[in-house]
Request: fold
Amino acid sequence: MNIKNIKPTFFLSLFLIASFFLPWFIFPGAPSYTSGWTLPVRIGNGGWVASSVVKDLNLIWFKVLYLVYLVPIFAAYNIFLRLTRKKPAINEYFIGLLGTILIFVMIRLIEMKFSNAMVNLTNQEYDLKLYTMLSVGFFACIFICIVGMYFTLVREVDDYMSFDEEMEQEYPTAYGSANPAASVKGVPIANGPNRTEVYSRLEQLHGLYEKGILGKEQYEQEKQELLQLLPKSNQQQDTAPGMTKASEPLVEYNNGIPSIPVEHSAYIPMPEEAKSNKNSILTILLLVLAGAGIGSYFMFFKSPAHAGIKPISDLTNDDLKGNVSAYSIYSYNVYLSDGGEPIKGDVQDSETFPALMQFEADKDGFYTLCEKGYANRTYDESNNLMVTQWFKDKEKKQLQYTYYSRYNKKGRPEKDSIVLGNSKSIVRKSEYTADGLSCSMTETNGGILNGKAEFRYNEKGQLIWMKSNNEETSYEYNSNDEVSTKKYWVLDAEEDGLTEYVFQYKYDKTGNWISRIVYVDKIPSAYQERKIIYREQ
Reply:
């Protein structure tokens, strides 16, 4: 087999079969991936699982996914046909493209049905975003199918022809059937010397080309040399329907055999321009499909599931610098010295300034212990969802509430909700604007609206203003990103009260504050110390 005679579609079909062994679907936390061979089965099983929640999910449609297995079967069969220089009967690339589209549609169907069911059950949206888990094998299959359709539909490289078909297409007026008196489309063909010999040599040449012994260029060159030996009637013939005749050349004789220039020896088919237009339209359509495939790759495959985007940590939000593992805040009363300087007094324990607040953080900077309790946190990178459970006890047996947070690509929250205990009732729900600079929050009690709150943030993600019921608070920050001023208003018909908090800090060498004095309406009201434990580098 001459490697030069192998068509590009032969290799594309091999690549198409190989793509079924690559990862088509990767589920976070799973020990292995799902290949193209197992994906229809997995989606079918997933449909059965989803049907336990989604009652109107029609599982019959999932059986259609098994038709995807026809793609590698057709590809293998067409590889055999191409090796024997026979035209494939079915375009495996078109079937493969339809199969990948069907898989995507089925995945989205499960997601939408499941999300709607969860809203009805728990009043909470939960988008699985399974399409973000589609992996390299799925997108490789789409790309191979688009390229394969270009070679088969536009370039028509699989247009294998028999000897008779090829001769009638390329030399219709000089080549006939085995009967020398035969005619092409009613046009009689003249006999001539050595005609049978030329036919025999042409057939032998075509056989060598089919077996791959001759390359394409050598075959075409020798074929044209033989075709010029065929005689042509000097009598002007009428053109066949749908054909136009080239200008008649002067006939030159060489040893009694007329030599007819190839460029003038055949009738010229008129539909060439239409064929060119068809190829242009197909090329444009395939380019659009290729662009859509590449775009979906970067939209879905290069999503947070694969880019590893993490939400901004609690330590970063609280402006702690360095590798902090834990810290504690102690509150004391403040006394004025004889010189009027504020000094630390005895321990203070109030609602505003509790005596002790303890914080512990994991290596990623998220709190595992704070004033809310003890945390059990999981983060699903496939859909940027963090689920945090807060417990009263260190053993994590008394669940207080569950906090659901979804983040954008910048690590900032998009929406969050809180569920009390083991119930399925949402008691607080927050939604952020697209720029993450504003947030609206609603609180409910037994399904009845209990209150609303609004929040505004600066470009650094720091809270600068909030309003809850009849209370309003604003924040200002110093050059070290610490709160310098906090103003608190109580908006009431009878009284409009303003309380102003001013903070003065001292810092350690890392840049974290270790002590601060809090002034309430210009009166020193609390002295706080913060003891920070850093992880060893």
